[in-house]
Amino acid sequence: MDLYCVKEGVIAELTALEPRRDGQWEADVFVSPVPIHAKAGVCFPPLVLVVETGSGFILRAEVLEPGLTESVILGDAIIESARQHRQIPKIVAVRPGLDASLAPLAAMLGVRIVVRNGMDSLATAWRSLSEKMKKDLPGLDAA
Asked: Three-state SS across the chain?
């Protein structure tokens, strides 16, 4: 199991923002539906998605460099979403297998991590984002 390590000072910086503590989020890592063309070849990088349960509001959608572990990707996305929106959710739902790696972060934030096989808000947001990316971005050239 890959534990998420919280960078020193991050939790203090986040709590200094006095974020509201409410809401439920759903988070997962996907494979980008659009390739990035690089010198080494074609790559389908990871894409992290964090949405608000119920409304489906996308809190964070980011294409990342390959090679990061899912726990790092999700942990960073949860922290950045909380920072950007000045909100720490009460619950974050993740797919099976990701809950244990996020347990230290959840304990530090006072968030409950729950495992859900079907996350409707996340699935709807992913379908919409994926379709838009396929339509608008036929492939990106890496600089």
From this structure: CCCCCCCCCHHHHHHHCCCEECCEEEEEEEECCCCEEECCEEECCEEEEEEECCCCCEEEEEECCCCCCHHHHHHHHHHHHHHHHCEECCEEEECCCCHHHHHHHHHHHCCEEEECCCCHHHHHHHHHHHHHHHHHCCCEECC
Task: Give the span between the Cα atoms of 99 and 114, in whole angstroms.
Answer: 7
Question: 10-134 belongs to which homologous superfamily?
Answer: Ribonuclease H-like superfamily/Ribonuclease H (3.30.420.10)
Identity at 33, one-letter amino acid code:
P
What residue ranges do the domains of the chain occupy? 10-134
- 85-128 pLDDT, tens per residue? 999 999 999 999 999 999 999 999 999 999 998 899 999 999 99
Predicted structure pTM score = 0.87
